[in-house]
Amino acid sequence: MKIATFNIQNLFHRDRSFLEKPFNKNKKEWEMEVDQLLEKPFKSIQDNDRIRELACLVGIDKCNQLPYAVLRRKASFLFLKGKNYSKELKASELTNWNGWIALQNFPIDPKAVENKARVIADVNPDILVLQEIEDRASLDEFNNEFLPRFGCNPFEQSFVVQGNDMRGQEIGILSRNGFKIESVRNHIYDLNINKNTLFCKDLVEYKILTANGNTIWILATHLQEQTIYKEHSDTIRKVQTEKIAEVYHKLYAEDKKHIAVMGTLNTVSYCNSLAPLLQRANLKEVTKHPSFNVDYDKGKDAGYYSLGAYRLGVNIKQKDYLLLSPELFDKVKNSGLNRKGIWPDKRPMWTVYPGINCKAHSASEHPAIWVDLSW
């Protein structure tokens, strides 16, 4: 039984908020200016106008979270959407409409889409957990149309749960014949101490019946990203990992010993925010297993171990994890990491798929991590 996790960074289209911003260097100054303006007890008309201008630039204006135009899936149609446009016709020759409209998302390079499929085909798992997918319709299209191009049979079952992020950042699972998704439970309504939503994306519990009649529990998650406010990000992430650890310990105490925790934890292993999982639970990383297999860095970096990297000779910052309970870890037959779909901007360098000539062709900025269990 092979299990894999992969942050695929969307299949066909991606929210424009993830585009590289040309004004990132100015953002901190703008945020300081907003803070100063908001602290004023009395604001002039000019102050309010400036706050409105800066709100969009620093990302606190949420108007774009309810898109009035969406480019759907890879082929797509463009429609006006929203209360102010409910009676408007879509653009056509008959309407003689001439103008432009800002889209909430942008299409992913077709070469990148193929490389996403190539990574999955190379790993070829029985159970695959994906982070950052648009929706189930996109996942099913990708599964049935793109995977077969690389000799990978489509998965028989798929399931996608709508999380708390409204930018197409859902968690999904795919399984092959003989591996049945028995139940799914998410945690989008879990609250923190301030009664705010705990998970910015989600924590999903899967109960999977294996081909041999055994049961495995998978906890899939995608935690708080690291922002310029590191302490704030770490605080949020630590509360999230404490909840995941609580769920894990509850399952383990109920004699459900075969548990895997996986996903994008968004920080390196020595970060204190991951301590509830990596230090105060009995979970073990597959990257530490003797069987762990990966193409090493090229040149002298192959003998180097960067702080926060996956391991010796794999000097990319660790953000993605596949953790196993001791009972599952003892059943590991083989494990590894596929990063051939990641474009190396700078050192370290490693082998990539033929045809990846720039960052736009990358399958993702994340590797796929897998484990083969003799069970």
Automatic annotation (TrEMBL):
InterPro entries: Endo/exonu/phosph_ase_sf
GO molecular function: endonuclease activity; exonuclease activity
SUPFAM superfamilies: DNase I-like
Keywords: Endonuclease, Exonuclease, Hydrolase, Nuclease
Name this protein carries in UniProt: Metal-dependent hydrolase, endonuclease/exonuclease/phosphatase family
Organism from which the protein derives: Salegentibacter agarivorans
